[in-house]
Amino acid sequence: MKQIFSSLLILLFFGCSSFSGKEDYRSLRELNQETLVPTRWDVGNTTVSNEDRLDVLIPYVQNVGNVYVGVGSEQNLTIAAWAKSEFVYLMDFTRVVVSANEIMVLFLKESDTKEKFLSLYKKERENEAISLIEKNFSNPQSYVGVYKKIIRYIRKRHKTNLKTAELYHYKMFQTDDSQYEYIHNLAKADRIYPVKGNLLGKVTLKSIGDTLRKNGQKLGVIYFSNAEEYFYYPQTFKESIQNFPITDSSIVVRTLSVKKHLFPWSPGSDISTDFGFHYCIQPISNFQAWLALDRPKLRSDHIMEEGGKTDRSLGITVVSRLPGRKSL
């Protein structure tokens, strides 16, 4: 009897932590999006991350679940696999990144293994990759142009991912079969959705929150990269964040490259570039409370300095307080 009970527990654990394709998430794709215009950031190197120590986030993001919203590209899928996110919005304000993400989702759908997925970005498989693009996009030449623009940066990033995973002894979807299978199945079920959106815009971010509310879904992880260090929070951004339906486990993930004296870079976070990053975790409920305060010219580093506890050796800050108050 004890053996049967143990077996049932094992089945229950894996059943809860594995991907289930039965639910219908198609309605989460019904949202309004910004119209993107050309920017100086529409270049190849913006389609990859240079945040080399995402693994310091693992204890905080693991199995958060629910819906994932993130800016940028493939680094979001690394975090989403750890979080076991059920639906992923890949949002960006540049047309090249949105197109690169659409190509990536196509390659994920067409690749049963991580090796096949990675190979579609290699020189010897370029013809096969271009053939897939030509068969699956209505305006293929535009996407082929994007693929050729980004390919050398993607190859470099994949090499860095493999290097850091080995160096710091962690698993990610590009190195681990089970995590890749999870992301592959999300893509096949149309649960990875590249969208056009600006964090400072009035449309996409708010529409995602509205869509989650309408469909009874919750935000699990929202990832800003280091975008917040470039702006003070405008009212439209505050309203969009406060509009998200959340749970007690919903979190903000951000990075910071400035104020190194206060927020030291995580060791090894500068492997792929000449500067590194500090990492930050904050409950979304706490972030919403900060944004509700009457604080002009508020920025992420202010919140981290006043409300966070910093591990200087690891290069990560966890925010849990409001100004002059204890943890929420």
TrEMBL record:
<dbReference type="Pfam" id="PF25046">
    <property type="entry name" value="DUF7790"/>
</dbReference>
<protein>
    <recommendedName>
        <fullName>DUF7790 domain-containing protein</fullName>
    </recommendedName>
</protein>
<dbReference type="InterPro" id="IPR056692">
    <property type="entry name" value="DUF7790"/>
</dbReference>
<feature type="domain" description="DUF7790">
    <location>
        <begin position="47"/>
        <end position="318"/>
    </location>
</feature>
